[in-house]
Specification:
This protein is of the alpha/beta class and 199 residues long. The protein is 43% helix and 11% strand. Helix 1 packs across helix 2.
Length: 199
Amino acid sequence: MSIYPPSLERLINNLSKLPGIGQKTAARLALYLFRASREFSESLATSISEVKKEIGICSRCFNLTDDDLCQICRDPSRDGILCVVEEVGDLLALEKAGAFRGRYHVLQGVLAPLDGIGPENLRIKELLQRLQPESIKEVILAINPSAEGETTTTYIAGLLRKQGVSVSQIARGIPMGGDLKYTDAVTLKRAMEGRRESC
């Protein structure tokens, strides 16, 4: 039997379905929302509803958008380099860092044969269809370094090279502030292989 009234229990259960939110955090958020002003709660509910109604997927790169094409695809100042990422969150992180001024392509996942996810389940075909019309000179593969990510990177790199496109991959190594003795062997190996001349 729940210690919360039914409506509060439903809110806690719904909040606990969010990524990274456990039951305790969900309960704390639900109690905060109960104490918050009615205006705030209604504004939050409206914002959630608007996102579900108004936000879609860009028809070209599969980023989030409220139009057919996202702001990045509509920006004529973006150059002919294409950065391929796994998910929209990866694209947003790269944009926030300000380290890339080209265009993007979101795969919407990675190859995972054991889970039944093959090339036909990702946006690989659409990636290949963009190369000629957009005069793409280089494709940067910025896919997360998991086993599935490595498989996806290798597979896509092979397809792109057959198209005569220059293919590169983001560097991987020790994070800033990292400690060598706590770094895994694969990361250390990649850091050594990807070393460059000191400044």
